[in-house]
Amino acid sequence: MAVKKIKDGIYWVGAIDWDRVIFDELVTLPEGTSYNSYIVFGSEKTALIDTVEPYKGEELLRNLKEFKVEKIDYIISNHAEQDHSGMIPEILKLYPEAKVVTNRKCKDMLIDFLNLSEDVFLVVEDKEVLSLGNKTLQFFMAPWVHWPETMFTYAVEDKVLFTCDFLGSHIATSELFDTSNGNRAKIYLETKRYYSEIMMPFRNFIKKHLALIDELKPDILAPSHGVVIKDTESVLNAYKKWISDKVDPLIVIPFVSMHESTRCMVEFLTSELCARGVTVRPYNLITADVGNIAMDLVDAAGIVFASPTVLAGAHPAVISFAYLVNALKPKTKLATIIGSYGWGGLVTVKHIKETLKNLKVEWIEPVMVKGFPKDSDFEKLKELADKIVEKTKEYTE
Ligand code: FEO
Questions:
Q1: pLDDT tens across 138-157, in order?
Q2: Which residues approach ligand 1 with their CB closer than 6 A?
């Protein structure tokens, strides 16, 4: 993809990964992704902000050639993860006079990951500035979006904030800006998916970073994945809602069923909850895209884990998903467990709860059924629906 102008002297020179389907062997990418690298030409110095995933490195190099970039003075590294830092060694080979500008923590990681030598670095502190002549870059430490070493770089005069992973979206598009793409709904969805899978565990850190951005009032937000953001208010408002403690009257039911008993319970409970005015999203964990469930967990008031008992515990797919939920730490307020067993049903409850130690929720009494559910079991599920709705109202009013 050719270079694209953001403002005078500031250009996108990254790479688009049109058909990448998974990231970190964990996060699905239904819309592909991009690795956004930027170049800033000052009157005296030139800075490259972040690089790209090494296997897409040729695209970055081609873009630099297109500009006939003869000299790069600074390579700004906002984040050590290899999809942004991985081409630094190659850039240093082409531009050996360049200094890698980053914070101390990121420097240590870059040395570990890329085997860079100490003398290539220029270490900066929070709020430090670097002059490029008629343009100034300022650095702000922004830990935990996505790793502990992450920072933002601000092009002060142009009011462009380079946020690396933060506020990004996994989307491959030929359009540079959020506002130039007709499909705003898709961008919103992919921004939310990205938040849910990557940023949600760091909700409490994000509050501080959003306050900084409110203070800086950038014209443009330039993350390192997805589109460059001109409509800053929309994305910042969306993030403010997502990180708030407010939840929606939405119940998510991740389930697995081996012999239709647990499925029957899920369908009955779904119907009972719907009849009481609550939105319900059941997901079969064997076929569902986990990213879609994670997106629902951004706002959901509650989660019902539904699992059969297998050998000495819950179904492995339920435990795998519970492990992920435990890591993502959604703001979900209530949880419960339902399922069917031939023997040992309480083991399943214990197994799921133990996997969810980070989840700060109010647990509602589970409904575990021996074999296929009977009339008395359906009555228990109706009582459970009443309880879930009562609690959902408490948390959403
Ligand atoms: Fe896009 Fe944390 O790397």
A1: 999 999 999 999 999 999 99
A2: 79, 81, 83-84, 146, 165, 224-225
Give the number of the atom of ligand 1 that is nearest the alpha carbon of residue 147.
Answer: 2
Tell me 118's DSSP state: G
User: Which atom of ligand 1 lies nearest, measured to the CA of 198?
Assistant: 2
Q: What's the rounded Cα separation, in Å, for the pair 315 and 312?
A: 9
Residue tagged 């690089």 (tokens): 51
For residues 12 and 176, give the distance between their C-alpha atoms in angstroms, rounded to a whole number: 8
pLDDT at 267 over 80: yes
Q: pLDDT (tens digit, 9 = 90+) per residue, 320-366?
A: 999 999 999 999 999 999 999 998 778 999 999 999 999 999 999 99
pLDDT, tens only, 113-131: 999 999 999 999 999 999 9
First to last CA, the chain: 48
CA of 77 to the centre of ligand 1 (A): 12
Q: Spell out the alpha helix ranges (H) of the chain.
A: 57-66, 82-85, 88-94, 104-114, 184-194, 203-216, 232-243, 261-275, 290-297, 316-328, 345-355, 375-396
pLDDT confidence band for 181 (50 / 70 / 90): low
Q: Strand pairing partners for 140? A: 152
- Give the Cβ contact number of residue 23 at 10 Å: 18
Measure the CA dihedral 81/195/142/76, to 10°.
40
Average pLDDT for residues 367-375, to the nearest whole number?
Answer: 97
Q: How far is the CA of 150 from the centre of ligand 1 (A)?
A: 10
d(CA 144, ligand 1 centre) in Å = 11
What is the CA(25)–ligand 1 centre distance, in A? 13
Residue nearest to atom 1 of ligand 1 (CA): 165
Amino acid making up residue 104: R
Task: Tell me the C-alpha distance between 317 and 32, whole Å.
Answer: 25
Enumerate residues 6+ apart whose C-beta is below 8 A from 304. 251, 252, 253, 254, 266, 269, 335, 336, 337, 338, 388
The closest residue, in CA terms, to atom 3 on ligand 1 is 81
In angstroms, the CA 339 to CA 336 distance is: 10
CA of 156 to the centre of ligand 1 (A): 24
